[in-house]
Specification:
By secondary structure, the chain is of the alpha+beta class. It has a single domain, classed as Alpha-Beta Plaits. Helix content is about 35%, strand content about 35%. It contains five helices and four strands. A four-stranded antiparallel sheet has the order 2-3-1-4, covered by helices on one side. A hairpin with a 2-residue loop joins strand 2 and strand 3. It is elongated, with a radius of gyration of 21 Å.
Length: about 130
């Protein structure tokens, strides 16, 4: 499988519900075309370097996925037909990629967000008596 990255810009004036629909639509499209989605990164609304379709700002979304070559053609077709997409670009990152190796581990995701699993403190009967429980 090949490893791809698609960055697309969504109309910044869309309501939150429509924005979620667009992000979900293209994330699901990867799976429908026998691809493996490895990352969806929403960058938020940013200023554009130049005006595109009369917009100076846009909401950026990055998709990283593995799939066969036809998957990019389908994404391109769908994005060009969707008026909510201002601009998009797809880049091939690798010819041979292992989708399982590219998926982030759950432990890494928690480390990035600063969340850690803290085991609950075990209390014995003696501790409960001392603490007045």
């Amino acid at each position: 499988m090949r490893y791809y990255e698609t960055l697309y810009i969504i109309n910044p004036e869309l309501p939150d519900d429509d924005y979620r629909v667009v992000v979900t639509k293209f994330s699901d499209l990867v799976g429908k075309n026998k691809g493996v989605l490895t990352k969806v990164d929403e960058w938020g609304t940013k200023s554009l370097a130049y005006t595109v379709r009369k917009f100076n700002r846009g909401s950026y979304v990055l998709l990283q996925y593995c799939g066969e070559p036809g998957i990019t053609a389908e994404l391109k077709r769908e994005m060009s037909l969707d008026d909510r997409i201002i601009k998009y670009q797809t880049i091939k990152l690798s010819d041979n990629a292992d989708p399982e190796a590219l998926k982030p581990d759950e432990d890494e995701g928690k480390a990035e967000t600063g969340e850690e699993e803290v085991p609950a403190k075990e209390t014995s009967a003696e501790d409960e008596v001392e603490n007045g429980v």
